[in-house]
Design a protein that fits this description.
By secondary structure, this protein is an alpha/beta fold. Helices cover 23% and strands 23% of the residues. The chain folds into two domains: 172 residues, Golgi alpha-mannosidase II (Immunoglobulin-like); 359 residues, Glycosidases (TIM Barrel, Alpha-Beta Barrel).
């Protein structure tokens, strides 16, 4: 290993990332090893450095832009090493979360959604849920013809919605989890604020009828059932009490759908930085000797948003673009992820841990941040970070059939199906929406970039916290002896102080060839750009019909036996794959 070069102004001693000691920790039960991360950085030169590349596939710079960005650079040296205990990238690490209201309005159809899912891969999971779980009216069984009460502002879910969902799942290869109401299944005194978002009077047998219809229609494409959304926000239940309620509802479901044994997911607690409610839930589950966790649950679910836009002016929370991309947000996210994995590891029979609702900022996203190009780089980084930690899946909450920018306030009856600033896609206008077309938002490009990384086991990279304001890096040992390295320069290309990252990667094995695919925006507004048409991945883009303009094009990277140096321009990400002839 080469000696680390110190960062100007630092002590000269390499700084380790949060939660990492010089002595490797013991491996957790889920097979996760903490990555040892020591900064190996070169001297930086201040100066201007703009983003390069073409606007769209027709630009003069070619499919992936210039081979070497010009301007000042900061040098980094990263050393990759193998650890058989590291988590794996499975190909199913990303998904979507959509409101139950979108499902109730008939938006989950093959015509509208299938191609958008297939472009991201042949498999995945869509979570049907969100806060509108308690605002929809399930019309199944003896309730099939019952009129929906006024409180059901999320709409009515009926057999027609199930029938439309089935072709979507068949065509895309994706699966779903089904959210069911919780509030009206509790005693009135267990509800925190009965007058806030009053819920229709749904009964337990009505819920069971919906689940039975879902299984009868979807079969194995129904993965599990989720009880309520963020129970700790709307009820007085502890995590242990919620566990007992979940067991009760699970028993009723399996009595009403005999011979199937449908499992549950939970607890889906709120988006707090801590994991208190998850810990209470897991503690109750581990103490319960009457029920094996794996017989009851398929996944332990959490929610997480690093930022917030909740509240009303002048007390409304605001997420700044610089905060989203900051080293502080990255380390706080890592703390949350580590806590989820550590809590799940308390079970003697471990269950996969997933984040089944997430995005940049809660309460529909932050205008000018969640819908900006920054979300492309952030989502790619977040997905790699979560998967490297051992999180089984991150589901990004999104609108479905909505016009870009047409946000409906929380007081509007249309809020449950409103456009969200953090949405992955939206229609430019009503005409596009009428054609079942949706344009890819910046977030979608980050998810698409993530799908270019092959399945495999994560390698250790000795990147330390001092590098995080400039660089994020991950490595995966893929199939057929390949290795893929993801390098993200999170600096804003519109800033005069940003520099390119010249990253030398020392690899654990020798390679004969390498190539990279670049995610970039051609808009001079940089990370703040809201022009998704300026974003490309390997020169390719996503059409309004959901299909890409072509396979992202890779360009060669010079590799010298067991090392290579890749220059990553500010505001771009390079996905570099090393292989053999």
């Amino acid at each position: 290993m080469s000696k680390p070069m110190t960062v100007p102004g630092a002590s000269g001693t390499p700084v380790l990332a949060p939660g990492v000691s010089r002595r490797r920790r013991g491996r957790r039960r889920l097979g996760r090893a903490v990555l040892a991360t020591t900064l190996v950085a070169g001297l930086g030169v201040a100066g201007s450095s703009g983003a390069s590349g073409a606007r769209g596939p027709s630009g003069a710079s070619g499919p992936s832009g210039p081979s070497a960005p010009s301007g000042p650079t900061t040098a980094f040296t990263l050393n990759a090493s193998k650890d058989s205990g590291n988590p794996r990238l499975t190909g199913d690490n990303q998904g979507f979360s959509v409101e139950s209201a979108d499902f109730a309005h008939g938006y989950l159809t093959r015509q509208l959604m299938s191609q958008r899912l297939k472009t991201l891969g042949p498999s995945g999971v869509v979570r049907l849920g969100g806060y509108s779980m308690d605002l929809v009216w399930p019309a199944f069984g003896k309730y099939a013809n019952a009129p929906a009460p006024a409180e059901a502002i999320g709409g009515t879910v009926d057999q027609g919605d199930m029938d439309a969902l089935k072709p979507l799942l068949d065509d895309s290869g994706w699966k779903v989890t089904l959210g069911i109401p919780l509030k009206k299944l509790l005693a009135p005194e267990e509800i925190k604020s009965p007058l806030k978002d009053p819920s229709p009077a749904v009964t337990l047998d009505q819920v069971v009828a919906e689940v039975k219809a879902a299984h009868d229609t979807l079969g194995d494409d129904l993965l599990s059932v989720e009880l309520g959304n963020e129970f700790d926000n709307v009820t007085t239940l502890t995590g242990g009490q919620y566990y007992e309620k979940l067991k009760e509802i699970s028993a009723a479901i399996n009595a009403g759908v005999p011979g199937v044994h449908l499992k549950m997911t939970g607890p889906s607690a709120n988006t707090a930085a801590t994991n208190t409610k998850l810990d209470e839930f897991v503690t109750a589950m581990e103490a319960d000797t009457s029920t094996a966790p794996r017989q009851l649950m398929t996944e332990l679910t959490s929610h997480f948003y690093p930022g917030s836009h909740c509240g009303t002016p002048p007390k409304q929370s605001v997420l700044k673009l610089s905060t989203l991309m900051s080293a502080d947000t990255w380390t706080k996210t890592q703390t949350k992820l580590d806590g989820i994995i550590a809590t799940g590891a308390k079970l003697s029979q471990p269950i996969p841990s997933v984040i089944n609702e997430s995005n940049s900022a809660s309460c529909s996203g932050q205008p000018g941040v969640s819908d900006a190009y920054a979300s492309s780089l952030w989502s790619l980084d977040y997905l790699m970070q979560a998967a490297k930690t051992g999180i089984g899946r991150v589901a990004f909450h999104t609108n479905t059939k909505a016009i870009c920018g047409d946000f409906q306030q929380r007081t509007s009856p249309n809020y449950p199906i409103s456009y969200r600033y953090y949405g992955a896609f939206c229609a430019k206008d009503q005409a596009e929406l009428d054609r079942n077309e949706l344009s890819a938002a910046p977030l979608y490009y980050g998810l698409w970039a993530f799908r270019q990384v092959p399945q495999g086991r994560f390698l250790d990279l000795d990147l330390g916290v001092d590098a995080l304001p400039q660089l994020r890096a991950y490595a995966v040992e893929g199939p057929h002896g390949t290795t893929t390295v993801v390098l993200i320069n999170v600096q804003d290309p519109s800033s005069t102080t940003s520099t390119s990252d010249a990253v030398k990667v020392n690899l654990p094995s020798a390679f004969q060839k390498a190539s990279q695919v670049v995610l970039r925006s051609a808009d001079p507004a940089g990370l703040a750009s809201k022009d998704a048409s300026a974003i490309s991945l390997g020169g390719s883009q996503v059409r309004p019909n959901g299909a890409s303009t072509g396979t992202p094009t890779s360009v060669p990277v010079d590799v010298q036996h067991k090392s290579a140096t890749v220059t990553v321009a500010p505001g771009t990400a390079s996905i570099v794959t090393f292989g053999h002839y």
